[in-house]
Amino acid sequence: MKRSVLASTLTLAVSGLLIAGAGTPASAAKNPRPTLPKASEAQALRDANSTVAAHPQLVRAGAHDAFTSRDVTVDADGSRHVHLDRTYQGLPVLGGDVIVHTAPDGTASNASLTLAAPLNLSVTPKITAKQAIATAVKKFKGVKHGSTAKLVVDATTATPTLVWQVVTNGTAPDQSPSHLHVLVNAQTGAAGQSWNSFISTAVAGQNQATAPATTVAGAAASGTGHGYQVGDVTLGTTSVSGGYQLLDPTRGNGETRDAQNKTTTNDSPPAGWGAAFTDTDNVWGDGTLTNRATVAVDAHYGIQATWDYYKNVHGRNGIKNDGVGARSFVHYGVNYGNAGWDDDSFSMIYGDGAVGDKPFTELDVAGHEMSHGVTAATAGLNYFGDAGGLNESTSDIFGTLVEFNANSPADKPDYLIGEKIGSTPLRYMDDPKKDGVSQSCWTTGTKNLDPHYSSGVGNHFFYLLAVGSGSSSYGNSPTCGGAPAVTGIGNADTGKIWYRALSTYMTAATDYPGARTASIKAAKDLFGGTSAQCAAVEKAWTAAAVAATSTTCGGTGTTPPPDGTNLLANPGFESGATTWAQTSGVITNETGATPHAGSYYAWLDGYGTTHSDTLSQSVTIPATAAAPKLSFWLAINTKETGSTAYDTLKAQVVSGTTTTTLATYSNVTPGGYIQRTLDLSAFKGKTVTIKFLGAEDSSAATSFLIDDTAVTNG
Known about the structure:
Distance between the termini: 39 Å
Structural class: alpha+beta
Radius of gyration: 28 Å
Keywords: Hydrolase, Metal-binding, Metalloprotease, Protease, Signal, Zinc
InterPro entries: ConA-like_dom_sf (IPR013320), FTP_domain (IPR011096), Peptidase_M4 (IPR023612), Peptidase_M4/M1_CTD_sf (IPR027268), Peptidase_M4_C_domain (IPR001570), Peptidase_M4_domain (IPR013856), Zinc_Metalloprotease_M4 (IPR050728)
Shape: elongated
Strand content: 25-35%
Protein name: M4 family metallopeptidase
Largest sheet: 9 strands, mixed
Number of helices: 9
Family: Belongs to the peptidase M4 family.
Organism: Streptomyces fildesensis
């Protein structure tokens, strides 16, 4: 006989959606858009809340998942895109974030995510934090200053795993600040994925701890700079007692300071780390490296050029879209041959270059580094795997676009990265493999490379889309595997597509095929599915060897499955209690009743007491579906008698806040398995939840047995 213990109904912990940024770390906090009316943002959060609650399968959510908001976008037409971070049983989930997309009326549209199925794992570790740290520190090279460990769920691989995320602080052998992350399996103690969260320009770097931007009492001023890399420029400065300071109040108090050839540690440096650049006449540097303010001019101009690009082109008010400017530190270390961004301290450092090289204060380097901050505040791309390459590529793309937008006569715009620092560029965008280590064409092994080298695929795509394949004044870009030639659409449209893909459709674990999908969706949003821009996006990805996915230009953007294809996952329940949301015990292989086929089936009710059971799964009905149908095999066993419907089973469709009952079955018509077929034509083009709701009264049990379900599009 079926278990008599009544299970509580599924509850999604979604209250965090209504508390902007509640409980999230600083790096994942929501970044409000100042131009967005608060009412619209609040409505977007409410829509996301309702969507997750009504369609848990849409975001692969289970009873132990909770969500907090990271970022909110509301389009001009009222469409909403809410980026959520996920926890599982209170633990952060790497790769578990999701973007919920809703229509202007709040109806669920779809979701962007990489998690394949609801999480189901133990969160009790067998390895202690101390043991995990002992394993992780073996990977650290340099001078250590301490380690911390926290339990997280790693969902970036096919099998989600409980891990200790160990962070070791210190200074790397090349003088870089260091913040090494290592994932240690919490059950076996094996060290896994590692990455550095201090992100450098040329090689994998680590993390710096510095103070937040300074606020100085004074009036905005306009100074004159004589830089080494950027030439003669106008600078935003602040009037202070006795002169001026390199702090720009018109750009969120973005500031440039002198690191005095020191290196920071992670031992909580004083709030005033480094020295402010001050001057009596508001004329800075003299174009030579003997004047310490000369490279400060480069860095400070980099802050304002990056701010202006994002503000004027994309309407973004600063790196985090919160109106706060970044800090730059020049003259970091001694002959330090790199530059890097630290999102935790919201600052970047520039080295003067190794012996024989020039300072790293080139304009595209500045745009590159600060764009890492934009990525952290939007998609939050991981710094490993394909996502790491996309993270680096995004910075190269926007660093290049910052350079073109500034159009400085001292630094002619090009598609080379860091070409003024040494004898050869750091990276080539027309054909990235020319540096000898980067990839121009994507393979399944690209994810195993350092992000600076796997970024080549994204850089190649960008160049193909903006400039085109073949020879041009900027370079000579081949296509991969004999793919057709690509005609470029220019920097302006390419930049808009990439920014929307990053901010609206990419999540932390997006890979290159996922980036293809994201950028096609972005192109369709901006220019339409039949536009030349969208077609060029498809061609450019193919030319970079990233094969076609189900999302295409034209029509609805997604190639519908063939007629007759079952759109439900685990339709016969043979994978057990996965992909379906259910009250406890509904999906079962108990011998007290029988399946229609196989070993598992769904058993709703059958307790003989007042009780209800639910079983549901979200599914997208193609707009092109000829005659979409829901079918399932149903058997009804009852101890009730007579013609009164005491116990019922309803087959329902939940769309947004509306629940439609397609059919009701009851104890009145008991019998063995019969296939039932219901029409879903009213739900074409919508993401809905298929729901079975069983309810019985206080006596005489009725069991509703369901098996071999299907949703087909024709």
